[in-house]
């Protein structure tokens, strides 16, 4: 029993100490289930036998004791499929499971069925069926040339919004961090000088694993944030936030957005934007030295997320949806608002979502 209690304390501390996809900070909506469940994304491919985690958040005012059960794809073998948990009010814990045998899927999509039973053996308090993916950047030397052929050994993370797909791929070397975003859309609208237009653009956030969100304007952003868009003078990677600099007005996205055309261009960044049929491609490479304190290394975790602004339909696509974040993880301070972006009264999801560096996609 002492070993079990020690293990539980360690899990609770892991939840309290923050990191990618840290403890929820927004108000709990009325009618929310007593517990929130979320299977984390895999940071290496399943066939390599990674350690994975399930997050459990206690919404209630009462401590919870029970059992967490998990069911991953057929043919997989885990070291265990159930674990005892204790969650204090307002706490998030990370429950580890080791994948002893996993199978890589061509589409990089895997089911995860979660449920919790209370200690008294009553019907499940809550359950969740979720799709997870491997979110990892393999070592690849990408040439930004307006062609996607050198991304064939990358790992795609795909999600759907309003019937449209978005695919994100990442890669790294010791010198560069690269991203390819594929946006399914009928047409592409660039930025323009003069009257307000709603352009199509991609917003990226990258941060160290232990990043903290700013609580007010003037706090350090804690993340690097970039806006990828076709500006009047060509494709530009614009700097919205630097990890060690004050955040810009993120508490009030509707009234205080920044002017994107007044932003600096990321030094050394290379960006290509092109269309193929009904897909717009954004191919980016950024010098690693511009992303301090992030240092790529196989097995190292960091935080990463993407927002796609579809100006034609005035809709926003959020990787937080694909990653299965909880509604209470919609946070005003998670992203920097800019003029022409698809901002609404509903905040975007937390930009600190688990991602990893790996040596290869195999």
Brief descriptors of the model:
mainly beta, 20 strands, 2 helices, 362 residues, Immunoglobulin-like
Description of the structure:
The relative contact order is 0.18. The strands form 4 sheets. Strands 9, 13, 14, 15, 18, 19 and 20 form a 7-stranded mixed β-sheet that branches. A 5-stranded antiparallel β-sheet has the order 10-11-12-17-16. The chain has a 4-stranded antiparallel β-sheet with strand order 1-2-6-4. Helix content is 5%, strand content 38%. It is mainly beta and 362 residues long. The chain folds into 2 domains: 2-132, Sandwich (Immunoglobulin-like), CATH 2.60.40.10; 136-357, Immunoglobulin-like. It is globular and about 65 Å long. It contains 2 helices and 20 strands.
* SSE pattern: HEEEEEEEEEEEEEEEEEEEHE
- Distance between the amino and carboxyl termini: 39 Å
Beta fraction: 35-45%
Q: Quick check: average pLDDT?
A: 89
The total count of helices amounts to: 2
* Uncertain residue ranges: 1-17
Question: What is the C-alpha radius of gyration, as a whole number of Å?
Answer: 20 Å
The general outline is globular
The class by helix and strand makeup works out as mainly beta
- CATH 2nd-level architecture of the largest domain: Sandwich
Q: Characterize the main sheet.
A: 7 strands, mixed
Multimeric state:
single chain
Number of structural units classed as domains = 2
Q: What is CATH's topology name of the largest domain? A: Immunoglobulin-like
- CATH top level of the largest domain is Mainly Beta
Number of strands: 20
